[in-house]
Amino acid sequence: MTWETADWLVFQLGEQRWALAAGCVRQVMRPPPITCVPGASHDCAGLMGWQGHLLTVVDAAARLSPGSARGSSGERVVLWVHEDHVGGLLVDGVVGLRRLPTSAALPLQSMLPPPWDVVAGLLRDGDDIVPILEPSAWFSAAAEGVSDRYMSTPHI
């Protein structure tokens, strides 16, 4: 019998728990100063410096509640990697890493309408069902309106 598992980073946005594939997480940190970018989308928290590079930081709560005046409390920034690019995701807190059987992840069969198009599936974590987020979809949406000179995301 094979016990295949996958690792997930579980984080908080308000009272809701969410998950990211741990393999795409580069670092979790307290937010450094984040500079707002005029003309950026509502869910772009701004730019932050990281290892000599400027990174786009997406406010996860603002993305998922576009009509809400409140975004994330910004307790942590989750740095994630996608196709050798790094971006930041502003979240309320990190619950921790979870190692679960691969069968715990239920991929979605169809695309959801915005803002839910960033949900890639659902994760069964005990009695809880936790949405799985795809941060690369957020990066492209938040980058709208940001000058190309700020979008030279570092290759790692």
Number of helices: 2
Question: Can you summarize the main beta sheet?
Answer: 5 strands, mixed
Structural class: mainly beta
The CATH architecture assignment turns out to be Beta Barrel
Number of DSSP-assigned strands: 11
Helix content: under 10%
Strand order of the largest sheet: 3-6-7-5-4
> What is the count of structural domains?
1
What series of H and E elements makes up the topology? EEEEEHEEEEEEH
**Which parts are unreliable, with pLDDT below 50 for 5 consecutive residues or more?**
147-152
Radius of gyration: 15 Å
Name of the CATH first level: Mainly Beta
Task: Give your account of this protein's structure.
By secondary structure, this protein is mainly beta. It has one domain: CheA-289, Domain 4 (OB fold (Dihydrolipoamide Acetyltransferase, E2P), Beta Barrel), CATH 2.40.50.180. Helix content is 8%, strand content 47%. It has helices at residues 60-64, 135-142, and strands at 5-13, 16-21, 25-29, 44-50, 53-59, 76-82, 85-91, 93-101, 105-107, 119-125, 128-133. It has a five-stranded mixed β-sheet. Strands 2-1-8 form a three-stranded antiparallel β-sheet, with no helix packed on it. Strand 1 (5-13) and strand 2 (16-21) form a beta hairpin. The relative contact order is 0.26.
